[in-house]
Amino acid sequence: MVPDLLLEVQDLRVHFPVYGGLLSRRIGEVRAVDGISFRLRRGETFGLVGESGCGKTTVGKAVLNLVRPASGSVFFTPPGGEPVDLASLTRSGMRPLRAHIQMIFQDPYSSLNPRLSVSEIMSEPLRIHFPAMTPAERAERVAWLLGKVGLPPEAAAGCPHEFSGGQRQRIGIARALATRPSLIIADEPVSALDVSIQAQVLNLLQDLQEEFGLTTLFIAHDLSVVEHVCDRIAVMYLGSIVETGPAAEVFRAPLHPYTRALLSAIPRPSPGTPRRERILLTGEVPSALNQPSGCGFRTRCPIARPACAESRPALAERAPGHSAACPYST
Amino acid sequence: MPGPVKLLEIRGLRTWFELEEGTARAVDGVDLDVREGEVLGLVGESGCGKSVTALSILNLIPAPPGRIVSGEILFRGRDLLKLSRPELRAVRGGDIAMVFQEPMTSLNPVFTVGWQIEEAIRFHQGVGDRRELAARGVRLMGKLGIPDPERRRGAYPHELSGGMRQRVMIAMALACSPALLIADEPTTALDATLQAEILELMLRAKAESGDAAILLITHDLAVVAETCGRVAVMYAGRIQELADADPLFREPLHPYTRGLLDSLPRPGTGKGTRLRAIPGTVPRSLSWPSGCRFQTRCPLAQDRCRRVEPELAEVRPGRRVRCHLVGPEGRA
After folding, report:
1. B1 falls in which pLDDT band (50, 70, 90)?
2. pTM of the full structure
3. Are B171 and B202 in contact (CB under 8 A)?
4. Which residues of chain A have a CB within 8 Å of the CB of B278?
């Protein structure tokens, strides 16, 4: 393994059973994540982008072992340790590692327990992962963390409903940082926030990443946000990665027809400026239950050919570190 | 020179909600005109009153707790707030149609989508012939990019995807060639590729079916930039800036408009650059700040801003700004 590698996901597959019919028998399975691989280097922000249903959230959950992969491995290197395959661990085997990997959720309204005070919400991970801490030490750590996310120490006594959406997201971020994780999985962390608040939280995430030396798996559908925060990105469609590379490269010179369509659809807040010619996709995203043969994108692809139905194209490197799964795009 | 024809004139609209904690003054003195055939964007963040403004136009405010406290809503000179229920029903879906964010809650789950589109035509235009109804419904569905409309006509809402349902909603709204279409976050729940397509189809269908004016309510400035001719920026229950889209995006005058645009990540800026966020949080409608409602977050606020609320003054032809610091020469 490369020395500065923090996370290496290899050929990850997650399948969900589908039940139906009179007796609710198993009638098939959804291949939500269909063989994806990527690596996260220490300190970088890696963006996983795609539209709803593409499997990006499931990847995040599978990394944390919150859903069981059908196959594949998720190697994580804890501080000062050897790489461990998280996918092979049991729940109890996973527990000591959870302190190192924390999640920030999309919805600041449902991800905080409404019955607990902010101090209780933030103390919980500390109690679990640092049982030796005294209550006074915990209180001190909570106040320090609140300061880091721009909230006053008095916030500790409040309950989630007393805070605005942006403030709740700050509390969620402080909770995620409580155990001093090395990897953050941020699943749509700003998409529920208003524009002016979104900018505050993006700035905060960027500052904390530098200060705490965090590595982030940033899952989002908003491409402008992804371009702004990520070093490298992977574009997902129907459970597969169709393109991956340095964020600036992918945005400047997208290779896969899906990436091109996706980028051309971003509305820009500057009328009259030249913009990418819009590529309208026809048809609908096929159901993951009933995937097309060959390339998953071919049913909507403007440059599809008969050969695309035969086999799924593999990711091929087209420029240093920049790969796409389409042999026909130029 | 005669000005553009005003289709809808909102005058001094106040819509308040009586809550346990007090009176929420969600819309608190809104003046806004919609001109024939234009696409006017009403933008603002959550809680600014933009959706309540839209609902007030058709008197769809749930009462209690809501109440239109004062104001006039003149549609072709007729005050919609003074109409009887049957008169209002004839206007809704006929002259003025509405599209909401979540189509599943506005479509009737027990009727086919074709029936629902045709029902609108039957009710408002008195078309009785079943074949003609079906043909018009199918034609509209086709215009909105619904594949195989003859077959989809018989589908129930739950059988369609979110994007297809939103197309059905728009088809239904345009079925009677309304003069005004109020679209409240019509594409917010949809994916980016679909959002672009549906907005484009909506504009094309509008042009082909009697050139309705569109009042587009959204939080997304980029969507406004790409679709609207004029823009009204709302904050804390009031319009803060009103201008043609091009000059507004090129040179936002109100500090809030500027703050909103600065908050957006720009293409090509890349990692490491900080966004210029607006500090603080949106005030609550239970107690708007004194003076200018943006003063608590405004980087330029002065003593006067804390005491006296500025008027929505015309600082240039066709451009209105509610700020003490903006004069005819631009910003102070």
Report:
1. very low
2. 0.86
3. no
4. 196, 199-200
